[in-house]
Amino acid sequence: MIINRIFQIFIFSACLILISASLTIAGTVTDGPTATPVDFIGSVKTVSGETFLIRKDMRTPVSVGDHLYQGDTLVTSSGSSVGIIFRDDTMLSMGPKSEVRIDEFVFNPADDAMAFLAHVGKGTAQFITGQMSKIAPERMSVETPLATIGIRGTRFLVKVD
């Protein structure tokens, strides 16, 4: 009888631990500023040479297929390049020794929620705009250290020395 009672307490405790762990894991996926898979704003399509992603002060090498999130910064080394496609089909190509931060990207035309703001800190970046520029071009802009560019066309190149 005592062994049966100890076994019941053990099973009950194990269930509580499993429930607590699953609630903790679920909370880390949905709470706070951490991006979840549905929050990604674009993907890496091509990489040549050394290209790095800076996210939350962590620098990691970029690979084809990596997802990008708001606030991410891409940095290319000498002789390197990277190609990105955003969820609205906007394309970004970065040349060697370049740095681009994606400050804001929202594309939800059903709710009239659209915004694109990128900051080119140095180097070259070519943009070929996607769906957002056709629907709401006034909501797209690119900043440099000295200027802000309003997007009204479909293809443009930014060079920052």
TrEMBL record:
UniProt signal peptide: 1-26
Keywords: Signal
InterPro entries in UniProt: FecR (IPR006860)
Annotated coiled-coil segments of the chain: none
Residue ranges occupied by any FecR protein domain in the UniProt entry: 72-159
Keyword check for Zinc: no
Domain of life: Bacteria
Name the UniProt record assigns to this protein: FecR family protein
Organism of provenance: Desulfovibrio gilichinskyi
